[in-house]
Structure formats: C-alpha cells, structure tokens
Design a protein that fits this description.
One of its GO terms (cellular component) is cell outer membrane. It contains 7 helices and 57 strands. It is mainly beta and 887 residues long.
Length: 887
C-alpha cells in the first residue's frame, strides 16, 4: 500500500494546486457533480510532470465525465471511468474519491438503470491485480478495507467477502473461496473462513474443505498452505497416488517431498509402499543453467517382498523371480549431464546407468524399454577441439553391465585425432593451384584404452573337447574390491589409424576417380603362443608381454552421374527427370592369415572322427587382428532418383514450377571377390525409398543370392543361371514398410522457448497419457510392415505381417479420444492395443487410459486440477500388472 500513499499525496499537490489560489479569493461552497450525456462529453485528463521530492515519475489521471473539487472540505471527486496511473500502479473505477481531511481514498462502482454494477474498481500493482465492489484506504495508517474482492495470487484467485490489507502488503480475507478457475462463478474452490496471502510467497488458510460444483465435500484439512512464488517453484509435499498391482498388492506411489533449492537446482525424495510388503525409495535431482549445462541425477532403492509360495510357483515356471537374490534388494544410479556447445571450449558429458542387474525388471514404475533392456552402459567423457587446429582429444570412462552380472570397464579410454589435412598446404604453406598432388590428404587417430572385467575368460575356446590347460567350463568371477587382480587380468591396447586420401581426378570429362590407402596398427600387452598336448588333449598357452598387429588396404572408386529428361508439356506436368548414379570400387587386402604376418597360428589339435588330422586357426592377439583370407574385390552399385516438374497450384501466371519426387532412392549393390576359393559373388541387396504425395512414406529392402543351395539350405558354388530356365537369383529376405500421418496439421513440429528453471523429471507412467493438444481436431497415423525370411533346409519360411494404427480425434472441443492398435495379419489377432480418453473440464482435466493386454497392461483414471499450483489436487485410480506373471 506504499504506492497508494505516494500517489494520493501526489494528487493532493497536483489536483489541489490549480484551485488553491481561487479558493483563497472565493467563498467556499460545495461543488455538486453535473450529470451530462455520455456521448456529448469529452474525457477530462491531466498529466503533470513529477515534482522534486519523493515522487519518481509522472502522474496521469483522467475521468470521462468530470473532475470536481470541494475546496472547503478538501475532497476531490473523479466521475466516469476514473483512472489514475503512477509508474507500475493503476487504479480504475466508475467513481474515485480522495478525502484529504480524513486521509482516505475510496473507489466504488455505480449502478445503471437496469440495476447492474458497472465500473467495478480494479487495482493493479505490478503483477498483483485486485477487483472489488468498494475499496477504502487510509494512506496515513497504511491500512485498507476492500469489500467483495477478487484478488489474483500467482495462478490462484481469492474471492473474499471482506479483505483488509496492512502496511506490509499482506492480505487478510474473511469468508473466502480459493481457486484456480478464472470464472466469476468458479467450478470448484477451497472454502475457508480465514485466509492470509503474502504476495509472491504463499497463501495460508485455517480449516477448509473442497467444494465442487457448489456441492461441499468432506475433503479438507485443519490448515492449508499454497505457495505462490514468482518463479512457480517452491518446496512442498508431493501427494502420493494409489492403485493396485497384481504382484505387490495395493500401493501408495510417488509420495514424498520436493525441494526447490534455488533457481538452478530442484530435487525430490519420493517413495512407494505396498500392502504385500516391500517399498521403493528414490532421490531425483534436476539442475539447469541456461546457456551452460543441464542434467539429472537419481538413485533408487527397492525392497521387493513376495510370499515364498509365490516364489516357488514362479521358479517352477521359469519366471523372473528365479533370478531374485534372497535379500530381494536392488539399487540403481542414473546420472545424465550435457553442456551447451561453445566454440573453443571443452565438452563434459555423462550418461550413467549402473546398479543391480534385475532392478528394471522388478520395478513397477519403469518404462517398457528399460524393462526389456538386455544390458545397460555408462560413460563419462571430456572432449575438446583445439581451436584453429585440426586436432582434438577425448578422455572417456565407460562401464557395461549384462543381466547375468558381468561388468566390463574401460578405464581410461583416450583418443587423439587429427582431421584430414592437405599435405601440400601443410608442407609448403602455398595456396593450391589445382595440380593433382595438391589433393592428397592425411588424417590420423590414436585410441588407447584399458579394458577390465570382473570375469576372466579363457584364452582359447573349447575345440571339440580340447581345453586350455588349467581352464574349465565356467567363467571365473573376480571381486570388484580386488583391483589388483582386475588390473592383472585386464587388457591394454593402443590403435593407430591413418586415413590417406590420394585426391579425386576427372577421367574422360564425366567420370570421377578417387583412390585411397588405409593403414592401422594396434599395440597390445598380450601375445599368445599355443602348443597342443596330445596326452592330455589340451592346449598349453605361453604369454608374451608386447604384441604389434597391423592392417592395411588400398582402394579406388569410379563414379559418374547420368541425367535423362523427358518433356511432357501436359496440363500440369512439365517434365520428368531421371538421375542415375553408377559407381564401381575396387579394394585389395592381403591374406593376414599367412604365417608371414604371424597374427594367427594354424595349430594341429588332434584327429577327427574319421582319423584325419584337424587344424584350427587361433588368434595370437586379443584385439586388432584383421580377418584372414586374401581380398581382391570389385564392388558395384547403382542408385536412381526420379522426379517431376509440375506447375504450382498457387501460381496464377502458369510460370512457376515445383519439383515432386517420385522415387527418392532406388539402389542395387553387390561385390565380387576375385581371390575367394568359392562363392566369389556376394549377396545382391536392393532398396527403395520414396514419399508419395508428401504424405505416404514407403521403404523396401531385400537380399538375393545368385547361388544354388543344398538340402540344408546352405549355398553351394553353382550359379542359378547355370540351371534350367532363367533364374538369376533367389530371394533370401525382404521387408516393406509403409507409414503415413493423414493430418497435415499434426505433422508440423513445434518448438519451445528455453528457460532457466529445471523441470523435475518424473519416471513416465505407461498408463498415464501424454500431453493432449485440443487445438488439433484429429490425427491418424497408419503403418504397415511386411517381412519375409527364407528358411534354411527343413525350416519353414517366416513371414511377419502387421498393421498399426494410432492417433486421436476430438469429438467436441472438450472431448478427445486417443487410440493405438497393432494387428498381426498372420495370426489374425491384436498384438497390442491402448485406448485414451481425455476430457477438458475447463479448470480440471480427466483422463482414462486402458491397456488390455501386452507386456504392461492395466488401466488408469485420473481427475486433476489443471493448474500446476494445485497439481496434487487429483483423484487417481490405477491397476496394473506386467509380463511377469504367476501361473
């Protein structure tokens, strides 16, 4: 109310000053307002510059009818759309009175001929807005009284019979309705006898109950606390939802407390409690600094308790509970961090997922993708490009974990790279002039890493009963606490890669020749030599300290573009263009299995069942070993693009054209290895991609073999063309994908404006629907998938033929139905389905989600207040189960 005092004192100076001299010469008398027709009276307004003193800006006030002064009584009257502006403060009313004798400011509405109140006083002070029938304020005591007022505090509205405001700008209301519904007669409200509101902080109430549709409900409490901060973030209780799970019974889920630590960090501590025993605890924190970084950290602990009888039944059926340890406790840690890329600055990123192997399978509120994940990985890295140089480096720590508990660590993983540079420019510092040798470039990369595992694998595999001496059929586990043993059984290596480009050259004007050379070399700390012991039928292994492996190849490619245009000159179609891109490449790679290189050992390992000697090719190094066998291969490929030139529909002159793609890409590829002993021709692959009418996406891929097959379906070295009839190739597999979204409005992408406030990331509930946009009247997505795989030998061919439909439709501007279904045409049954129903209740939202079958199935009914301020004011009924079933 400090601002009201300032502008009232200013009005005392500004309004009375012009009349004060006249009042000294003229006998005092009361000035009565004269009512004049509205359409014949001009608005009176006064604008005075701010005088020197405590006043900081210009005062503006106006009235549509008149401004009247009672100089004898020191009273000023503003009639008809009275308005006062001072800085960020505004007061509007049908009538405003300033009484300098009593130090009061009064604003009221008036009643028109039909008995309706017009010109209801509205007071705006920055972000605060008050609307009332009568406002009375004493600017000397800094206290006010407002009758039948509606005040806005953040997202909430307070309807009060009487409101008093003190010098600290605090509001005290009597007989109140607190709601987030912005109607004069709200759909719902919290009915409280007394309310205290501290602007930009909180709203507090005594005993209250919830009223919905003017019907009082027994829902309430002894006191209420509703935060209303400017940034819409504050600490508070997270009310749990309740439901039922077929495995863990009834539950209270996601209840806890949210901590708004500051403008950059928010954290929540939540948990679940189940009626059959067990609980879940979670700590989740989000942080975000605009233009710098953002991330999330979470840790989860689960105690999964089930009856022993249920465990026995599940183990008899081979269910997931057979994997649960006796303690049935799991823990999991997640951390993600991503910075904003800045030129010349390093980039620190983190993606950590580590914990108990079966945590995701037994946690009830986990996404389906997490449940089905066979393994999870973690990595922490720092990467930097050295500015104004071709160099960059990366330091990385990573960890991988399998469902059986095996952990693999790469500590550390260091990479240093030099992007391709021109040797001519680097050595001579001259500007290229177009000579052939100026196009030679060289790139370099080195990767050094140390790999550790909590399980030690045998050096060589079992070959028909031949074991490594001292080995056994199981993998020996190593405790993670025994770092010395981990390091001794680890593997260290450094791999160097050189990418040498010999430039590109034009041949016969239309062809482009691009030769190249690749060389790589790996240094390892292990080199093995094997010896067969016929007495024990086992392998003896000798280990050396350092090993060097290298790999090199030479290649060249020849390509060109062929264009063909057919002019149609039709009513709309002007021409059709066909573009063909044929290419041929050759690669040569020596046989690194030759004893000259020493990368493999062709070892005698006894005799087979026919008494013939048997040999095995054993690798002598853990990593970096190239494949054996000479490679002298010619690869070929051809891609096609077909498009039309049509007249634009929006052009009236007939001179504007646009391109319409008929086939985006249609390609055929294959290879022929001249050095192979047999089966020199590779499989032939064919693929097609296009988009019809800018709506329908079509993708097709297939593989063919040119060889005949034996009774087991294995290829034999005999071409199909040599057989009877014309049969160039045999289909191995094929796939067709067709998809479309029939609503153009739903296909548009939307972007959002970034903000600095971190949003608390909650685990998505598979039953709760996503955000619903009622502005889009309908959407329809259709996808069709057909896959064929030829069976080998006596195995039958397999065909997968499914069609999926998803989308939504707005029955009215308040009702929307969303749907998803996948139908297996071969099995003639629905493979999965989901139905969502949404209802816009103005200030409430209702959603129903039902998943009748599938890995996660159940239903969810939620009725909640739309405002984020009352996010916990909701009713939820949920029942769910998962693919983990008892039989």
């Amino acid at each position: 109310m400090r601002h009201i005092l300032i502008f009232s004192l200013l009005l005392q100076l500004a309004v009375l000053a012009p009349f004060w001299a006249l009042a000294q010469r003229t006998p005092a008398r009361s000035i009565r307002p004269v009512k004049t027709p509205q359409d014949t009276v001009k608005r009176d307004s006064v604008t005075l510059p701010a005088p020197k003193g405590d006043i900081e800006t210009t005062i503006k006030y106006s009235a549509r009818d008149s401004i009247q002064l009672e100089a004898n009584n020191k009273v000023v009257h503003l009639y008809g759309d009275a308005k006062i502006n001072y800085g960020s403060m505004t007061l509007e009313a049908a009538y405003i009175q300033i009484d300098y004798e009593k130090n009061t400011l009064t604003a009221t509405s008036v009643t028109d001929s039909s008995g309706k109140d017009i010109g209801v006083p509205v007071f705006v002070d920055g972000a605060e807005t008050y609307s009332a029938k009568r406002i009375a304020y004493n600017y000397k005591t800094k206290r006010g009284r407002i009758a039948e007022v509606v005040t806005q505090q953040g997202e909430g509205f307070i309807h009060s019979e009487i409101v008093k405001k003190n010098e600290a700008n605090e509001i005290f209301g009597l007989h109140n309705k607190y709601t987030t519904c912005n109607l004069a007669h709200p759909h719902f409200y919290i009915n409280a006898g007394k309310i205290k509101a501290i602007p930009n902080d909180k709203v507090m109430s005594g005993p209250f109950n919830l009223v919905i549709g003017d019907i009082p409900t027994p829902l309430g409490f002894l006191f209420g606390l509703f935060p209303t901060p400017k940034n819409n973030r504050s600490s508070g209780v997270i009310v749990p939802s309740f439901g039922e799970n077929s495995l863990r019974g009834f539950y209270l889920m996601n209840g806890g407390y949210y901590l708004a630590l500051n403008d950059y960090i928010g954290a929540s501590i939540t948990g679940d409690v189940y009626s059959l025993g067990g609980y879940d605890l979670r700590l989740n924190a989000d942080y975000n600094k605009r233009y710098s970084y953002r991330g999330n950290f979470g840790i989860e602990h689960t105690y999964f308790k089930i009856d022993e009888a249920d465990v026995a039944r599940s183990r008899s059926t081979g269910d997931i509970f057979d994997q649960i340890p006796d303690s049935r406790r799991t823990i999991f840690v997640r951390w993600s961090h991503s910075p904003v890329q800045k030129p010349g600055k390093g980039r620190f990123t983190a993606s950590v997922n580590a914990g108990s192997s079966i945590h995701n399978q037994i946690t009830g509120n986990t996404r389906t993708a997490d449940r089905l994940a066979a393994s999870f990985n973690s990595s922490i890295s720092y990467q930097k490009n050295i500015q104004n140089t071709p160099f960059s480096y990366t330091v990385k720590l990573s960890q991988g974990q399998n469902p059986d508990g095996q952990m693999n660590f790469v500590l550390p993983d260091m990479n240093f790279s030099m992007s391709s540079i021109s040797l001519y420019e680097a050595l001579t510092k001259n500007t290229p002039t177009g000579r052939w040798y100026e196009g030679i470039t060289v790139g370099y990369n080195v990767n050094a890493k140390s790999t550790l595992s909590n399980r030690t694998e045998r050096t060589a595999a079992n070959f028909g009963g031949v074991d490594v001496i001292g080995g056994n059929d199981t993998i020996r586990e190593i405790s993670l606490n025994d770092f010395t043993t981990l390091w001794e059984n680890g593997r260290r290596s450094a791999t160097h890669n050189f990418d040498i480009n010999l430039g590109s050259y034009k041949l016969f004007k239309y062809f482009t020749l691009s030769p190249g050379v690749n060389y790589s070399e790996t240094w390892t700390d292990r080199k093995y030599t094997f010896r067969y012991d016929p007495d024990s039928n086992a392998l003896d292994v000798d280990t050396a300290g350092f090993g060097r492996v290298y790999d090199y190849s030479a290649s060249a490619s020849l390509s060109t573009n062929i264009y063909g245009t057919m002019y149609v000159k039709g009513k709309r179609v002007e021409a059709i263009r066909h573009m063909i891109r044929p290419s041929v490449s050759y690669i040569y790679k020596p046989d690194f299995g030759d004893p000259y290189f020493g990368f493999y050992q062709n070892l005698y390992v006894g005799e087979n069942t026919n008494g013939q000697p048997r040999y095995e090719m054993l690798r002598r190094f853990d990593s970096g070993v190239p494949g054996f066998g000479l490679q002298s291969a010619l690869s070929f490929g051809i891609t096609n693009n077909l498009e039309m030139k049509v007249k634009s529909k929006t052009d009236t002159t007939g001179k504007a054209f646009e391109k319409v793609s008929l086939i985006d890409n249609f390609g055929i590829r294959g290879a022929y290895n001249f050095a192979a002993d047999s089966l020199k021709m590779s499989q032939i692959t064919m693929n097609l991609n296009t988009r019809l009418f800018k709506v329908v996406n079509i993708g097709f891929n297939s593989s063919f073999t040119p060889y005949e097959s034996d009774s087991l379906g294995r290829p034999v070295d005999r071409y199909l063309l040599n057989g009877p009839g014309f049969k160039p190739a045999r289909l191995i597999n094929a796939g067709l994908q067709i998809s479309t979204n029939l609503n153009p409005q739903a296909r548009r992408t939307q972007t959002s404006t970034p903000n600095n406030l971190p949003t608390l990331t909650q685990k998505p509930n598979p039953f709760e629907p996503d955000y619903v946009d009622f502005k889009i009247p309908w959407s329809l997505n259709i996808d069709y998938t057909l896959n064929f795989t030829r069976g080998l030998g006596s195995n039958p061919n397999t065909i997968a033929n499914t069609v999926g439909v998803d989308g939504d439709v707005s029955l009215t501007d308040k009702w929307k139905i969303g749907y998803y279904a996948s139908y297996d045409i071969i099995e003639q049954e629905l493979s999965s389905a989901r139905l969502n129903i949404h209802r816009d209740l103005h200030c409430w939202d209702m959603s129903i989600s039902w998943t009748p079958f599938g890995y996660i199935r159940g239903y969810n009914l939620t009725i909640s207040a739309r405002s984020a301020l009352l996010r916990d004011l909701k009713l939820t009924k949920r029942s769910s189960t998962s693919g983990i079933n008892f039989r």
